[in-house]
Design a protein that fits this description.
Largest sheet: 10 strands, mixed
Number of domains: 1
Strand order of the largest sheet: 6-5-4-3-2-1-15-16-18-17
Radius of gyration: 17 Å
Shape: globular
CATH superfamily: Ribonuclease Z/Hydroxyacylglutathione hydrolase-like
Number of strands: 18
Bound molecules: zinc ion
Distance between the termini: 29 Å
CATH architecture: 4-Layer Sandwich
CATH class: Alpha Beta
Helix content: 10-25%
Strand content: 25-35%
Order of helices and strands: EHEEHEHHEHHEEEEEHEEHEHHEEEEE
Number of helices: 10
Length: about 290
């Protein structure tokens, strides 16, 4: 069983600096491991608020060197290293984030590098395995040229999750997310309002049509997307593709089991399910009660 918890569904400078939506990335749990993907600003506090122990994290993945994807990386490395008392954990990420280049300086200090057991630069096609979970980097087309997307596979049950990270539309992208039952797209902009280097609702449609996941999840919303109503945007994708599509919410959890995908609006709410999708033995369910911020 794999569980994804959304510690943030916001993206871009306006949403990040106002926290109109959280920007803490996604925590993946399962197979006796915990992996934190794109821990933007607030990741530590959001995790603690939701009862997730960052000291149990075994790996941190940073898809690229933009602040909304790495802001809390160093503090989470300290947590992963058991409050900096031992060398512990793995950092995976783009070369811009881990090494730096002409455009971006490395995102972590020598001190924090020294707290890690291992680090690995991800380039499209490269992979890393941890406790039966395989992470493979996919290409992305973004203003940070070394940005990578991810395919996360649980070897035993064959669960396969695609995560685009920030990318422009490219017709080659679906090839890399083939057979993903859950497809998570960073969709910064609403229908008809494209933005260089990012996906908008209309650009998501042909990708979803080709990947044909059981469930599509939109996340990483910019201010214009939020204004255009995320649920409405998800409905547009669902109507055009015929594939169940939801707009992620802060604190939401998705559980992938052998035959089911469960959705919870917030990880500490009671499960209340409604079947939404039934496809090749996979059933997606969604909680009907909504999370109201504290
Ligand atoms: Zn970016």
């Amino acid at each position: 069983m794999l569980e994804l918890i959304f510690l943030g569904t916001g993206g871009g400078r306006i949403v990040m600096t106002t926290q109109m939506r959280w920007t803490g990335g996604i925590v993946l749990r399962g197979n006796d491991t915990q992996i934190h993907v794109d821990p933007g600003p607030g990741a530590l506090v959001r995790a603690l608020d939701l009862g997730i122990n960052p000291q149990k994290t075994d790996a941190i993945i940073v898809s690229h060197a933009h602040l909304d994807h790495y802001g809390d990386c160093q503090i989470l490395i300290e947590a992963m290293a058991r409050a900096a008392t031992k060398k512990r954990g793995v950092l995976l990420g783009s070369s811009s984030a881990l090494v730096g280049d002409e455009q971006y300086s490395r995102i972590i200090s020598n001190y924090h590098l020294g707290l890690l057991e291992e680090k690995q630069v991800l380039t499209p096609g490269s992979s890393f395995s941890i406790k039966g979970i395989k992470i493979t980097a996919t290409p992305a087309y973004h203003s940070d040229p070394s940005t990578v997307g991810l395919v996360i596979e649980e070897k035993e049950n064959g669960a396969r999750i695609g995560y685009t990270s920030d990318t422009a539309y490219n017709q080659s992208l679906p090839l890399f997310y083939k057979d993903c039952e859950l497809f998570i797209l960073c969709c910064l902009r609403p229908f008809g309002k494209p933005w260089k280097g990012h996906l908008s609702t209309d650009e998501v449609i042909p990708l979803v049509e080709e990947v044909k996941p059981s469930l599509t999840v939109l996340t990483h919303f910019g201010a214009a997307f939020l204004k255009a109503n995320p649920e409405k945007q998800a409905k547009i994708v669902e109507k055009k593709t015929g594939i169940k599509t939801i707009a992620a919410t802060d604190g939401m959890s998705i559980k992938l089991e052998e035959k089911e995908i469960f959705l919870k609006e917030k990880i500490d709410t009671k499960e209340k399910k409604e079947i939404l999708v039934k496809k090749t033995g996979v059933i997606a369910t969604q909680l009907t009660d909504f999370y109201s911020p504290k």
